[in-house]
Write a structure and sequence with these properties.
alpha/beta; eight-stranded parallel barrel; six-stranded mixed beta sheet; 11% strand; binds alpha-D-glucopyranuronic acid
């Protein structure tokens, strides 16, 4: 039975195909090694109801006994030979013989990940005698971003209040933080930023002694699980906190202020990963205020952190949010590239740019940002959103690895269809290689809060797990991850199979009943849940679809705003031509008449009607499928998810009817299939 709190680490009695020895030989190591050993014994207890009793130092000279061996690769390989390759940074190897179990990490983190993977595979029934596996994370940086505010609210949070803060201060239950760190580490996460990128009110005080003292407690828990923390800072801190007249990054007083501040921060958190910075974005202060570049701003902070080994993660979500809807030449989609491509190569070695996956803002479907593939001399990572801001607020089910898989498969260069010549996003992910378009990892805004099940919608747990797995290995498919998560959470059962099926239906359904064909921003302004078809049409945010009675969409080709020209020449060609542009993005790149004939031979308008009817029907099917699980699930879980599916259906109905009515009113053209469209 599912205990929602335990996420994908359920306490479940399984029948193992192997014997678990009574003794653990472990290498002496630091606190991560100790944690790994503890996780092993606790995990065996959780799954088998008993655990190895004795822990003996691996160097005790008794290693001929039947045992579990936990340690670092050089030590373990003295005891057994592996046929798989030596693990790389943070990787591991696992080997099971008739008598022994060996788990060897490249480093302490690798050992911890190896233990967690062993336990998952044991729970999935995939461990047998002769088993051997070597695995190394593809992305060095697997980051979770919290948008938690110090008053306890979470920006774009849909699962209760903050795990970390309340009423302007740190306020956390240490056990819960430990459990959280365990879950994150078990999914492969190695960095967490602990506060919102919009650093307001008391969050500005996080870099003062009073607050840092408390932050050390949080950092210490995460540290045991191999997770280093980032702090989001406010670029204006020198004046808002330090009472200096400015925050000009070239002002010696400002430079000195940050150097001193960095020294103070690292005194408390010596292994701080660094700063995360949202500057000159949506009202946040930044270097533009002083006519300085983003390289000036980021490098100044990077110099302050450099002596302590910290990095600056600098967000590229920089655009003019005071746009005039009347001006058709200005296109927000162009902003990140325009702001950052000219600065390629101008950032210090410890600056990493964090680029949202698409040029807009976590929409249901957007093209991959053209900065990927274009930045060749600047370290960078990709930002995703696990929290369902535009994808249903964790009321609607929307299984996100589905769209992430598409992002990972996007070929940034596109040189024909020959596999050898493909440069997909996932091929670019890996350790920093200077002078290449390499992406050093992923960051994602998390979907957890104080709700008992962490994510509000129980099935949204799959998005958190999926993100971790995908960051570890960007070649995993959404289907593989869904299967793994469902079986870990619900046991190897028919229910798990159905849940996997529901997960896989959910993203296509959500896309269809909300905003298919890459149209974007038809949501209710502000909240971003439910339809608000013209909600952003006349606003300052620069996200318009410009539907009139003949056509819809923005021409982003060279003849229009020119956004397509930011891509590699081949991709620009593909996107610029409506006959080659992927249809799920066609309205992102083109302004099309409603009678434009799509690939299925139907008009664009008919496709709009069809997708909305279909999406609604698919939401109804998910609800029905869920109802078939009534007797196989814990009643609480069944009911809470059921009520979310009911709310989702109501939302889908609103989307379907409002959108269809809207276009019917614009065009006066009826649905060819004669379905009900309200007048
Ligand atoms: C979106 C979101 C904001 C957030 C911003 C960001 O615009 O709606 O709440 O602050 O992204 O990524 O910084």
């Amino acid at each position: 039975m599912l205990n929602e709190y335990d996420l994908w680490m359920q306490k479940r009695k399984i029948t193992a195909a192997i014997n678990i020895p009574e003794i653990v030989f472990a290498q002496d190591g630091g606190e991560i090694t100790n944690q790994a050993v503890m996780e092993f014994t606790n995990g065996i207890q959780r799954l088998l109801g008993f655990s190895p009793k004795e822990r003996i130092n691996i160097n005790s000279g008794q290693t001929e006994r039947q045992a579990v061996f936990l340690g670092l690769f050089p030590e373990i390989k003295k005891l057994v030979s592996f046929s798989c390759m030596e693990p790389g940074a943070e990787g591991f190897v696992i080997k099971v013989t008739e008598t022994n179990i060996y788990i060897a990490g490249h480093d302490e983190r690798g050992l911890l990940y190896g233990v967690f993977r062993f336990l998952s595979l044991l729970s999935l029934g995939q461990i047998s005698y002769g088993f051997e596996l070597g695995d190394t994370p593809v992305s060095p940086l697997r980051i979770i971003n919290h948008w938690d505010n110090f008053d306890g609210t979470i920006e774009r949070g849909y699962a209760g209040n903050s795990l970390f803060y309340k009423d302007g201060h740190f306020d956390f239950e240490i056990q819960r933080i430990e459990d959280y760190a365990r879950f994150l580490a078990s999914a492969g996460i190695n960095r967490v930023s602990i506060n919102n990128v919009n650093v307001r009110a008391n969050a500005k005080l996080l870099i003062t002694e009073e607050y840092l003292k408390e932050a050390t407690v949080l950092a210490a828990v995460f540290r045991r699980f191999g997770i280093r923390i980032f702090i989001s800072i406010n670029f204006g801190a020198p004046y808002s906190l330090g009472k200096l007249p400015s925050a000009d990054p070239l002002d010696p007083a400002v430079i000195m202020w940050w150097k001193n501040r960095a020294a103070l921060i690292f005194k408390y958190i010596p292994d701080l990963a660094g700063f995360l910075v949202k500057a000159d974005s949506e009202g946040e202060p930044g270097p533009f205020q002083y006519n300085r570049t983003h390289a000036d701003g980021a490098n100044m902070l990077a110099e302050a952190l450099e002596p302590f080994g910290g990095v600056v993660i600098w967000r590229c979500f920089v655009y003019n949010c005071q746009q005039d809807w009347r001006d058709k030449n200005f296109d927000r989609a162009c902003a990140a590239y325009n702001n950052f491509k000219p600065l390629d190569g101008k950032f210090n070695k410890n600056v990493i740019l964090q680029i949202k996956f698409g040029p807009y803002d976590f929409q249901v479907r957007e093209p991959v940002s053209p900065l990927f593939g274009a930045l060749k001399n600047t370290r960078h990572i990709m930002e995703l959103q696990i929290t369902q801001e535009y994808t249903g607020h964790q009321i609607d089910l929307c299984y996100l690895p589905w769209v992430w898989e598409d992002i990972m498969n996007f070929d940034v260069i596109k040189t024909g269809n020959d596999e050898k010549n493909r440069y997909r996003v996932r091929d670019l992910i890996g350790p920093n290689k200077e002078g290449t378009a390499n992406i050093e990892g992923l960051a994602a805004v998390v979907n957890v809060g104080l709700d008992r099940n962490w994510t509000g919608h129980t099935l949204a747990q799959a998005n958190l797990y999926g993100y971790g797995r995908l960051a570890w290995n960007p070649s995993l498919t959404a289907k593989e991850i869904a299967g793994e998560w469902s079986a870990l959470s619900f046991g190897a059962s028919q229910a798990a199979q159905k849940i996997e099926e529901i997960l896989l239906k959910s993203y296509p359904a959500y896309e269809k009943y909300t905003s298919p064909f890459g149209i974007c921003f038809m949501v209710t302004p502000g909240s971003h849940y439910g339809p608000g078809i013209e909600g952003y049409e006349f606003s300052r945010w620069g996200t318009y679809h410009r539907a009139d009675l003949h056509a819809i969409g923005i021409d982003r080709t060279a003849k229009g705003t020119g956004f397509t020209e930011q891509f590699s020449a081949d991709n620009a060609g593909i996107f610029s031509d409506p006959s080659t542009c992927p249809q799920n993005l066609i309205l992102f790149f083109h302004r099309l008449h409603y009678d434009f004939i799509m690939k299925n031979g139907q008009t664009l308008l008919q496709n709009i009607y069809d997708t909305h009817f279909e999406g609604y029907d698919e939401a109804a099917q998910m609800l029905e499928l869920w109802k078939t699980l009534k007797d196989s699930l814990e009643s609480d879980v069944y009911k809470s998810v059921l009520s979310r599916f009911e709310r989702q259906l109501a939302n889908a109905r609103e989307w379907k009817d409002q959108i269809n009515t809207y276009f019917w009113r614009k065009t006066g053209i009826s649905d060819a299939k004669g379905r009900k469209i309200y007048e």
